Amino acid sequence: MTVRIVDLSLEIYHDAPNFAWDPKCAVIVHNTVASIGYNMTQLSMATHQGTHLDAPFHFLDDGKTVDQLDLQQCVGQAILVDLTHKKPKEPIEIKDFEPYADRIVEGSKVIYRTDWFKQLPGRHYFSDFPYMTIELARWLAERKIGLIGMDVPTPNPTDYDPVHKVLLGAEIVIVEGLANLGDIGTDTFFFSAAPLKIRGRDGAPIRAYAMVGL
Q: By its UniProt entry, which SUPFAM superfamilies does this protein fall under (predicted)?
């Protein structure tokens, strides 16, 4: 059996774009082979830089922190919802997910594709993307899915507080900033979004990838 791995992650690099109110991404040379005999880099960035994962603590003080997440919730079989027909600033609604409803059940890992990552590094990447409605967030929460992933920087750029609280309040892991979902080539695949084990905090960068043919 041949297994194909598809990298679904954005690159991390010095001054990589992020939300205006987030810490700036800094990738700084600390040591070099010439100076000390080996290369070493200092990395400073937000826990929500690029391709990353939100734990419930991100919006809920009593929510699980990233180190408390069950990795079973972050890794496993996933389904891909194709929303590439969506236009900038167009709502993503319950009706867009209904064709997949029989597979969106308790514990499901659901990823949706808009191809919006191609708008990087434009600043409009952070504001003009197709957005999840509050009603859809509630529908997903009622179905008790385990994870929702997306190739946009956040589910909703204006109603981000209620949408996050609905999803994270239902202990749904949110994976944001995915890329290359069109390279998967199937709507069912093995997905990995294991986060860095940062004690007591709200989220973490991930190296997300798909395994096709597993």
A: Putative cyclase
**Each residue's pLDDT tens digit, 152-172:** 999 999 999 999 999 999 999
Two structure tokens written together for 194: 């294991």
Could you give the CA distance from residue 16 to residue 120 in angstroms, rounded to a whole number?
Answer: 10
For the domain spanning 4-10+47-212, the CATH number is 3.50.30.50
Q: What is the pLDDT of residue 163?
A: 98
Q: Which residues of 7-46 are buried (b: 16+ CB within 10 A; e: fewer)?
A: ebbbeeeeebbbeeeeeebeeeeeeeeeeeeeeeeeeebb
Q: What is the pTM of this model?
A: 0.94
Q: What confidence score (pLDDT) does residue 214 get?
A: 73
Report d(CA 140, CA 136) in Å as an integer: 6
Tally the C-alpha atoms within 13 A of residue 85's C-alpha that lie toward its C-beta: 4
Write the DSSP string, 94-136: HHHHGGGGGG--TT-EEEEE--GGGGTTSGGGGTSS-EE-HHH
Question: Phi and psi for 10 in degrees, rounded to 5?
Answer: -80, 155
Three-state DSSP at 35 gives helix
